[in-house]
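Q: How would the structure tokens look for this protein?
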Amino acid sequence: MNIQVNRFERTKDYTISRVTLKDYKLNNYTFYAIEPPVHYLKAVKPYAIPCGTYKLLYTWSHRLKKNTWQVMNVPGFEGIRVHSGNYAKDTLGCLILGTKANVDHVENSRIAIDMFNDILSKLKEPITITYIEINV
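A: Here is the predicted structure in token form.
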């Protein structure tokens, strides 16, 4: 499975994305996400990770004290995760999921994370995540 992160709103304070999961049964699941600003709008970290395709693994997070989905081998970053939160200030580069995007935050993050975990935990195939900049 490949997860698409389509960044469509960028400000100096945050980045909002539409996150789409498409499985082999042709089911589509859509979430929204917030990240820090993209690097060209902010010179120092935290900022959003570079666009590209990365492997996604379910691993232990010492910082969060639980298993979460980790975005692997991101250039210049360590410990990039998919986790709950609401605002860009809640992350150092990780993807925060929600069921709805608002002006500067996502809503229902824990519900979205539970759904995301449930969907991905049933998969037997490798999972990748692709971050894309959408021009709006």
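The first helix runs from residue 109 to 121.

Residues 21 and 76 are 26 Å apart (CA to CA).

Upvote if useful.
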